Amino acid sequence: MRRPLRKAAHLTWVWIRTAPGTYLWLAALFVTTVALHLMSPHLQEEFLRRRSTNLHQLSQNPVRVLITSAFWIDGGRWLPYAALYTVFHAPAEHWLGTRRWLAVAATAHIGATLISEGVLGWAIHQGRAHEAAGDTLDVGVSYALAGVVAVLTYRIAPPWRYPYGGAVVIFYGVPLFAGPDFTDIGHFSAVLIGLACYPLTRGRPRTPDLDTGAKRGVRTPS
């Protein structure tokens, strides 16, 4: 009984150790989520608003809010993200290597944020949205997640690649036809950015040899 448990613990540690970016990010989200739960609702909203990637904050501190917004979860539910990071981010980091995975996640987060807020700015200018929308609360990691979910399309060998990619596009695309908001535009933009990151996947194996990496104590090179 102890041997299977030790083996399971070892494999779990290898899985985590070979995706350091994913689990360091997840650990940071755990700390910030706990911090949010210790705040009053009013203080929590004001605190997140100052770290939000809305039009007001982007015009004042674009670099700061683009970075800090990726370390807070709106809603305070960490466990679902722990599962999603393990299912999507960790396999992507194993496959692409930390640097390429981070490039995909950062590009999706930043690119989708700028696109969605740019559309919102246009809507406000055209009178299609209220000016108060420029100061809405907008933090979180869902754009980066959507981009990584999309780039994993290229990890799957044909013909299964196409149903997976189609399902991703449909999942994020349907809200655009059912009363879309600017977050929906951001999510779909992140998916398109993830799919556009195909050049970063060239030369990467479709099935990473984690067993070999575990035996040697090394990661797939980035």
Write a concise synopsis of the structure shown.
With 222 residues, the chain is an all-alpha fold.
Oligomer: single chain
What low-confidence regions span 5 or more consecutive residues with pLDDT below 50? 208-222
How do the SSEs run, as a string of H and E?
A: HHHHHHHHHHH
**pLDDT averaged residue by residue:** 87
From the spread of the alpha carbons, the general shape counts as globular
Largest sheet: none
The helicity comes to 55-70%
The tally of strands reads 0
Strand percentage: under 5%
Q: Could you say which structural class the secondary elements and strand pairing correspond to? A: mainly alpha
Distance between the termini: 37 Å
Number of helices: 11
Task: List the keywords.
222 residues, mainly alpha, 66% helix, 0% strand
